Amino acid sequence: MDFKKSRWESSPKLQKSKLKNDLKGSTPKTSPSLLSENQTFGTSYSNDPLSYHLISKCRSINEHYEMLNKIEEGTYGVVYRAKNRNSGEIVALKHLKIDKSYSGFPITSLREIYTLKNSKHPHLINIREIVVGNSINSVYIVMDYVEHDLKVLITNMPSAFLQSEIKTLMLQLLSAVEFLHKNHIIHRDLKTSNLLMNNSGQIKVADFGLARKYSSPLLPMTNIVVTLWYRAPELLFGETKYSTSVDMWSVGCIFAELIDKEPLFPGTSEISQISKIFSLLGTPDKNTWPEFDLLPSSQLFSFKKQSHSKLREKFLNLTQNGIDLLSKMLDFNPKTRISASEALNHPYFRESPYPKDPSLFPTWPSKSSGEIRKAYNSPSAPKHDDDVSPTSKQIVFSDIFENASKNTDKAGFKLRL
Q1: Please, are residues 336 and 342 in contact by the beta-carbon 8 Å criterion?
Q2: Superfamily for domain range 148-400
Q3: Intervals of CATH 3.30.200.20 along the chain
Q4: pLDDT tens, per residue, the chain with 417 residues
Q5: Residue-wise over 201-233: b if at least 16 C-beta within 10 A, else e?
Q6: Which residues participate in catalysis according to the annotation?
Q7: Which CATH superfamily is domain 12-144 in?
Q8: One-character DSSP codes across 162-193
Q9: Which of 23, 96, 247, 336 is the most exposed place for a label (fewest CB within 10 A)?
Q10: H helices then E strands: how many in the chain?
Q11: Residue closest to 365 by CA, chosen among 144, 93, 91, 148
C-alpha cells in the first residue's frame, strides 16, 4: 500500500476502482476521493454498488467454515472460533456488528479490513478473507486463531510475568507499533485485551476498528477514542490534533500492567481517570507540559499541586532503566513522549535479565477452545466512528479501509462547577 501523505482526487469512479483493486490485493496508480466522515455507503447494499461489490464477491461462511464456539464480544463485533471445512485448520471469525441506526456498511469495519489487509507484520493479527453468512448483511472477517488475550492471561496467572518475559512482550509490541506509526497509522485502542498471544510466546496486535491514518500537518480528529484506562491525558482534555503519541501512552499503561498484573489507571469516568493519573504522576506545569493551558478543557479544573511522580514508589522492583522507560512513555507532553523507535533502543532492553526467547515461554491452557472468555470489569472501546473535523467534514478515502461526577475533590483537582 502507498502511504504517501497526499489528498485523494475526487471522482466516484476512482473510489470504486481503488476499492476493487484493494480487495484483489493490488494497488491502483490513482487514488480515490474523499467521503464524509458520517457517510456509511448508501441506504442499502443493493442500492450501493460500492458496498455491494465489496460483499457480493465474498465466499459463504457456511460452505467453508464450521462455527465451533463464541470467544468474546466487543464494541464492534463478536469473535468465534471456527474450523476450515477443507483443511481442518482452526481460525477466528469476527462477526461485524452492523449498527441499525445507520444504513450501509460501517466505516469502522471498513477501516479495520483495509488496515489489516495492507499492514503485514509478524506481530499484527493476520486477516485471511471476508466471508458472508445467510444474508449479505452478515459479514465476517476470517483471521488467524490465537489462543490467548493478555488481559485474560494476566488476570488468571498466579503471578506476574518475569522481567525477561515482559521485555520480550514489550519488544514485540513496540515493533508492531513502530511499523504502524512508520506507515502513518494510529491504532487508537491499544490495551491488554487487544493483544493476543499464541502458545509460542508471539504477540499479535488486534482490533483495528478505531485505527486511522494521520496526515501532516495534523488535521482534527475525534478525541473520543482509546478505552478509558489507556487514554492519553491530551485526549481527556479535549485535544483533537494528535498523532502517534496517544498510542505510546497506551503502551506505557500496558507496560505497567504487565509488571503489576493490575491496570495502572482504572478510572470510572473521564474525571476519575484524570484524578488517578495526576495522583500517580503529579500535576503538570509549564515545564512538564508547556501547552497544557491551550487544551479545550484545561480551564475547567482547579488542581491541588503534586510536584513529583510516585512511579518509583509504586514499582520498587523495576530497575532504574525500567522506571526511565516507563516515565518517558507516560510523559504528559505528547511532543516529548518517547516514540516506538526510541523505546526499542532503550537501555532497559539491553540490561540483565535479558529478553527471553519466545519459544521458552510457559504454555497456558487456552481459555477459548470451548468456552467464552471471561468478561472482566474493564471499560469498552468508545463507540465512535465519525472523525468529524470542525473545519472540514471530509476524510481521506484511504482512511476508511484500513459527564462529570460532582464528587471530584480528590486526588489532585476539583471540577469548577
Answers
A1: no
A2: Transferase(Phosphotransferase) domain 1 (1.10.510.10)
A3: 12-144
A4: 333 333 222 333 443 344 444 444 433 332 222 223 333 333 344 445 555 566 667 888 989 999 999 998 876 688 999 999 999 999 999 998 776 655 566 777 777 888 888 889 999 999 999 898 887 678 899 999 999 999 999 999 999 999 999 999 999 999 999 999 999 999 999 999 999 999 999 999 999 989 998 888 889 999 999 999 999 999 999 999 999 999 999 999 999 999 999 999 999 999 999 999 999 999 998 999 999 888 888 877 777 787 789 999 999 999 999 999 999 999 999 999 999 999 999 999 999 999 999 999 988 776 555 544 454 566 777 765 455 444 333 333 233 223 333 333 333 333 332
A5: bbbbbbbbbbbbbbbeeebebbbebbbbbbbbb
A6: 189
A7: Phosphorylase Kinase; domain 1 (3.30.200.20)
A8: PHHHHHHHHHHHHHHHHHHHHTTEE-S---GG
A9: 336
A10: 12, 15
A11: 148
Q: Provide the grid cell at 386.
A: 465519525
Written as one letter, the residue type at 297 is S
Half-sphere exposure at residue 281, Cβ-oriented, CA atoms within 13 angstroms: 27
CA torsion 165-281-249-329 (nearest 10°) is: -60
